[in-house]
Specification:
Structural class: mainly alpha
Radius of gyration: 26 Å
Largest sheet: 2 strands, antiparallel
Shape: elongated
CATH superfamily of the largest domain: Intergrase catalytic core
Number of strands: 2
CATH topology of the largest domain: hpI Integrase, Chain A
Number of helices: 14
Order of helices and strands: HHHHHHHHEEHHHHHH
Number of domains: 2
Strand content: under 5%
Distance between the termini: 70 Å
CATH class of the largest domain: Mainly Alpha
Length: about 300
């Protein structure tokens, strides 16, 4: 059997037994087809199953090197390799074709993209003015309360929208907010006075401010959908000339970046963000190197 026919079998299996989406099928078909196309030139002919079983580690490395030469980055090559590995696992189950060489191949190194924060002025404008174009005073109050909470406390959008009225930080209340993050992990974050004030304004408009009701509600009174908040942010950034990376999650990045630039230590920021690993928090050190240098000059005895 030719390898391309086996590719068709694999895609059919993905579609009917794994219920893969059309986009997944398209991506797997394209990535494996590209791999087989490389082998046709590399081996001097269209490969069959025997040729796939006889591939050496050097052949797989040559393919990845070819991908890199074509401009594919580490993330792209890692995705292509994942697709080819899935293909070979299918061949082992369906046709008994075992090639242990592909398991010896290391995945290309990938770099997580750096967090993209807003400037202080941009983040402040979002937190204070995002509801200004809304015709309804209640929606304006809700949006200001939500986005000031995201920037002021560094919350994920899911964490903010998961809060109930009983947890709302209000003037005169608790100085901290208890947040349930990923993995049901709880953390405590302080709440700024401006966030408390915005929350008090919103609760005066809240349709049903009972303790167990959702803190942020949609037009029909149910819990606010994240897509609505994302659309609100998208409209605001377009009307106010903000960059395309100005999203609700960018406010969380801005919270961490601005704290770090102001001299906060990484451990404290890790606790405030609810990161399980300090290495995740350390990504912010590359976002504002100029700010870190200024802090170093100000605090180091030899600075």
């Amino acid at each position: 059997m030719l390898a391309d026919a086996a590719r068709g079998e694999f895609l059919d299996w993905l579609a009917h037994e794994r219920r893969a989406s059309p986009l997944t099928l398209e991506a797997y078909g394209r990535d494996i087809g590209s791999f087989l196309g490389f082998l046709t030139g590399h081996l001097g002919g269209e490969p069959d199953l025997a040729a796939l079983g006889g591939l050496r580690l050097a052949d797989f490395r040559a393919w990845l090197a070819h991908e890199a030469g074509e401009g594919a980055g580490g993330t792209t090559r890692a995705r292509h390799l994942s697709a080819v590995r899935s293909f070979f696992r299918f061949l082992a189950r369906r046709h008994g074709l075992a090639n242990p060489q592909i398991r010896l191949l290391e995945s290309p190194k990938t770099r997580r993209p750096l967090p993209r924060a807003l400037t202080r002025g941009q983040a402040r404008a979002v937190a204070e003015d995002i509801g200004e174009e809304s015709e309804a005073a209640a929606m304006q109050a809700r949006d200001v309360a939500l986005f000031s909470l995201l920037y002021g406390c560094g919350l994920r959008i899911s964490e903010a929208l998961g809060l109930d009225v009983g947890a709302a930080p209000l003037p005169g209340g608790s100085a901290a907010l208890r947040v349930v993050g990923k993995g049901a992990k709880e953390r405590i974050v302080p709440v700024l006075p401006m966030v408390r004030a915005a929350m008090a304004v919103w609760l005066r408009h809240h349709p049903s401010p009972t303790p167990e009701a959702p803190l942020f509600t949609g037009a029909r009174g149910g819990r606010l959908n994240p897509g609505v908040a994302q659309r609100t942010m998208r409209d605001f950034r377009r009307h106010n000339g903000l960059p395309e990376h100005a999203t609700p999650h960018a406010l969380r990045h801005s919270f961490a970046t601005h704290l770090l630039a102001g001299g906060a230590d990484l451990r404290s920021i890790q606790d405030l963000l609810g990161h399980a690993s300090l290495s995740t928090t350390q990504r912010y050190t590359s976002v504002d190197e100029a700010g870190l240098l200024e802090v170093w000059h100000r605090t180091h005895p030899r600075g």
